[in-house]
Write a structure and sequence with these properties.
elongated; 26% helix; 81 residues; four-stranded mixed beta sheet; alpha+beta
């Protein structure tokens, strides 16, 4: 459910900076903010710097599929002279 910055960028097909620009700290009330990605700092080994981990369901919400792909085939008509 949690991804590092590099993994998050690869997951949505964008750069790490794109994810970091939309990052907001994990709120106390657990509310989702549209078009933002919540993160928490996770401490790994003792003495190591904390690392940001991004919440995967928020990343899923950033992946937008164009509605034009759902339309049927396009019929081309010749121009009138």
């Amino acid at each position: 459910m949690w991804l590092s910055g590099k993994e998050a960028g690869e997951y949505i097909g964008m750069s790490r900076d794109y994810v970091e620009d939309r990052a907001v700290p994990w709120p106390d009330d657990d509310a989702h903010v549209p078009y933002k990605v919540r993160y928490q700092y996770i401490v790994g080994k003792k003495g190591a710097d904390p690392v940001r981990r991004y919440y995967r369901p928020d990343l899923d919400a950033l992946i937008v599929k164009p509605s034009t792909l759902r339309r049927g085939p396009v019929t081309l008509r010749p121009r009138l002279a």
